[in-house]
């Protein structure tokens, strides 16, 4: 069973996907994403694998309940992909060569474009959950793409702020934020190869990092070939820093924020990537507790300036050092 249920109080959709509970317990030594499994090509470098238990699908299943005026119900139409980063089971995105990460960026771009053209799809969300503490069950390096039939609320909020700022100043909010960070300088980790890397002033997570394209573009389709390679380098820069912080493979959520694909123009929106690592120190996790979950206010028990300094002194120190 899978459907969208409307919350009229928070004015947002909740996707129910009860069939995901039936996901089989796979044998411990078997991985569907490894060549030889019969589920993926024998020879691939990066690969789009259709999710076996998708939250969204085309055609979507019939909703299991009937909606009312207040309790709207919609079919969970959309696409859920798994993005396999490499055939090698025991590695991570951080450990892959820059040239290989560039292949991933090209795959993201191609798949984004395909999904963007689909009439049912309004928003293409590329992301990665990494690490058992984030709830990842498959250790094989992979990310995901969810193609939504609506614009997700967090992105909608960014769009609204950006539109308002654009309307009152004629400028891009994200470009202005970048300028402000640059002027201050204390939280900036790097700038170059087409991207700007910063622990944002308003970081919710201690080691939150935002990566913004220097050029004002709405989505990855607009990246030049040079910027694709730049992005690969800058991604690796951030991920290596994370792994070097405490000497273990650092868990994180990585999300790509791009303009909607509903056919409208979004001249005020600006492509960026956000990283939310759940660790606040070597052995302490940050949980989404009462204040975060109940009030929507994050409590960050460290200062962004301090964490940026820590990240800055963690190798690689410069973008050039990334191989
Ligand atoms: Zn595997
Ligand atoms: Zn901009
Ligand atoms: Zn964002």
Percent of residues in helices comes to 25-40%
Overall structural class, as computed from helix and strand content, comes to alpha+beta
The CATH topology: HIT family, subunit A
Which sequence of SSEs, written as H and E, runs from N to C?
EEEEEHEEHHEEEHEEEEHH
Structure annotation, total helices: 6
Named CATH architecture: 2-Layer Sandwich
Taking all Cα atoms into account, the compactness measure Rg is 20 Å
Biggest sheet character: 9 strands, antiparallel
First-residue to last-residue Cα separation:
46 Å
Strand content: 15-25%
| Spatial arrangement of strands, main beta sheet | 3-5-7-6-11-12-10-9-8
Number of strands: 14
Count of individual domains: 1
Task: Note the topology.
Elements: E1 2-7, E2 12-17, E3 47-50, E4 73-75, E5 79-84, H1 98-116, E6 123-130, E7 142-148, H2 153-169, H3 173-184, E8 188-192, E9 195-198, E10 209-213, H4 225-246, E11 252-257, E12 272-276, E13 279-281, E14 284-285, H5 290-295, H6 304-313
Antiparallel strand pairs: 1-2, 1-4, 3-5, 5-7, 6-7, 6-11, 8-9, 9-10, 10-12, 11-12, 13-14
Helix pairs in contact: 1-4
The structure holds zinc ion (3 copies).
What descriptive keywords fit this protein?
alpha+beta, 323 residues, three-stranded antiparallel β-sheet, 6 helices, HIT family, subunit A, nine-stranded antiparallel β-sheet
Structure description:
This protein has a nine-stranded antiparallel beta sheet, with helices on both faces. With 323 residues, the chain is an alpha+beta fold. The model has no long low-confidence stretch (mean pLDDT 95). It has one domain: HIT family, subunit A (2-Layer Sandwich). Helix content is 27%, strand content 22%. It contains six helices and 14 strands. It has helices at residues 98-116, 153-169, 173-184, 225-246, 290-295, 304-313, and strands at residues 2-7, 12-17, 47-50, 73-75, 79-84, 123-130, 142-148, 188-192, 195-198, 209-213, 252-257, 272-276, 279-281, 284-285. Bound molecules: zinc ion (3 copies).
């Amino acid at each position: 069973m899978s459907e969208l249920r409307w919350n009229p109080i928070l004015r947002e959709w909740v996707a129910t996907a009860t069939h995901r509970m039936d996901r089989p317990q796979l044998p411990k030594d078997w991985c569907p994403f490894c060549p030889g499994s019969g589920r993926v090509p024998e020879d691939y470098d990066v690969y789009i694998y259709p999710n076996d238990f998708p939250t969204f699908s085309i055609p979507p299943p019939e909703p299991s309940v009937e909606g009312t005026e207040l309790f709207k119900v919609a079919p969970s139409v959309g696409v859920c992909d798994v993005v396999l980063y490499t055939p090698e089971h025991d590695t991570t995105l951080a450990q892959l060569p820059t040239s290989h990460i560039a292949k991933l960026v090209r795959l993201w771009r191609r798949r984004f474009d395909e999904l963007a053209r689909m009439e049912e799809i309004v928003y293409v969300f590329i992301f990665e959950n990494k690490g058992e503490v984030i709830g990842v069950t498959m250790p094989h390096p992979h990310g995901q793409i969810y193609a939504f039939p609506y614009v997700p609320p967090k992105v909608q909020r960014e769009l609204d702020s950006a539109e308002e700022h654009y309307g009152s100043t004629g400028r891009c909010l994200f470009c202005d934020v970048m300028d402000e960070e640059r002027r201050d300088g204390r939280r900036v980790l790097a700038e170059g190869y087409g991207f700007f890397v910063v622990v944002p002033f308003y970081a919710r997570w201690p080691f939150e990092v935002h990566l913004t394209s220097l050029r004002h573009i709405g989505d990855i389709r607009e990246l030049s070939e040079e910027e694709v390679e730049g992005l690969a380098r800058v991604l690796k820069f951030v991920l290596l820093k994370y792994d070097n912080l405490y000497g273990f493979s650092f868990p994180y959520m990585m999300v790509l924020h791009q303009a909607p694909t509903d056919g409208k123009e979004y001249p005020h929106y600006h492509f960026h990537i956000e990283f939310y690592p759940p660790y606040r120190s070597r052995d302490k996790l940050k949980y989404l507790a009462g204040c975060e979950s109940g009030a929507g206010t994050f409590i960050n028990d460290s200062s962004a300036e301090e964490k940026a300094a820590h990240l800055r002194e963690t190798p690689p120190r410069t973008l050039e050092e990334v191989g």
